[in-house]
Amino acid sequence: MTSSITIVGLGPGRAGWLTQEARDALSAGREVWVRTARHPTVAELPGILWKPMDSFYEREEDFSNVYLAIAEEILRLAERPEGVFYAVPGSPRVGEATVAQIVRLAGQRGKTVHIVEGLSFIEPALGALGLDALDGLYLADALELASRYHPPFPPSVHALVAQLYSRTLATDVKLTLMNQYPEEHPVRLLHAAGTDAEEVEDLPLHAIDRSEKIAHLTALYVPPLTKGSLEEFQETVAHLRAPEGCPWDREQTHKSIRGNLLEETYEALEALDQDDPVHLAEELGDLLLQILLHAQIATEAGEFRMADVIAGVDAKIRRRHPHVFGEVKVNGVGDVLRNWEEIKAGEREQEGKEDRGLFGGVPLGLPALEQAIGYQKRAARVGFDWPEISGVRAKLDEEIGELDAARGDEEREAELGDLIFAAVNYARWLKVDPEAALREANARFRVRFEHVEAAAKRLGKPLKEMSLEELDALWEQAKAGE
After folding, report:
1. Least crowded by CB within 10 Å, which of 19, 31, 99, 435?
2. pLDDT number for residue 3
3. Which residues of the chain are under the pLDDT cut of 70?
4. Final residue of a domain: which of 393, 413, 432?
């Protein structure tokens, strides 16, 4: 070999999985540095001068440090006149972090790398599981998956999670997966694929870390969910808008379905007020339909795509949370809100947008209560607020007095507006959502008055013919019935 670094893949297990090129390279009589001796091929080819590097795992606590240290050692050995011959399990191109590091460092230092391909664990895994990779297989690394809070792949695909080498790692992986899959979702642990000890273990997702068979050659197969994929829903919406789709959906524009977006938003809010998770899930679905319809209309017009919507908001949220995704330190919610406003102002300046002031981000079309709370919260972020709640309460009494003293319709309207604004501010200090509180009060009033109507009907009396005392008695009965 003329290369200073040669890397050979040992295949997934038995020596019978070795490619002919790899077998020829291993039989050339040179020393072979191998990432780990815990591989069946090493034991099956005793005549080779193996140089195991397992000791690196004992020196470093973090796997990324292990892989970097091994890569640095291979680069050091490559300085010798004879270069270095390095072997790894499976394929050098699949899940081998040391190979990626070696290739990177070699490129920086002007070293050449020759890779002798090997069969990966994927092929025997597909055979053991009875899968076709073209059915939409996603390959994930267990360590990378465990570092996430949500899986990076849609639930509509087959997923094969490699290198699930310990029960501790399996715990972290299952917690990530359970953010998307039901805890009872049936999965399969695949142990030692491609070896004589190959075994498939069926169990529910929540139980994978209880398996005592997990070892360094364990992988996890996650079957797809039959429904629940955003991508599948996008396909449905795109089909509706296609020439062979629905005539009504094809005719819609951004403006024609504008009211639907508002209506579905209010229906989702109603489900929230009812504290009904089943109803909320349905209404959020209806709201998502409107978002996808707008995104599909924009896609067809060449305006933007759903990927642009998601990428834009994801980047914005990460940018505005430097205390989570960066190095900024905060002391409580107050710091977070101040940083948020400063970052937004910096974004507007960078984009050349006109500074619309502190209230520029509060839509003029918001319902009045929501608009009031929005103005008050933003003013409070820059210190324009009462120091204590007693001042807020006193302001409420003051506004009631000014309303009582008002003369004329215009003055009474203005003072009533000030009173409501002060009540919204009092709600903010009490950490109560005024919109939700008023909606709940409306709902209580409706339920009670419907009880009054029903009671009056049972008595055979029209409401208009009943005295206030009679109506009030029925009202008290309704309250007591709650």
Report:
1. 31
2. 61
3. 1-3, 355
4. 432
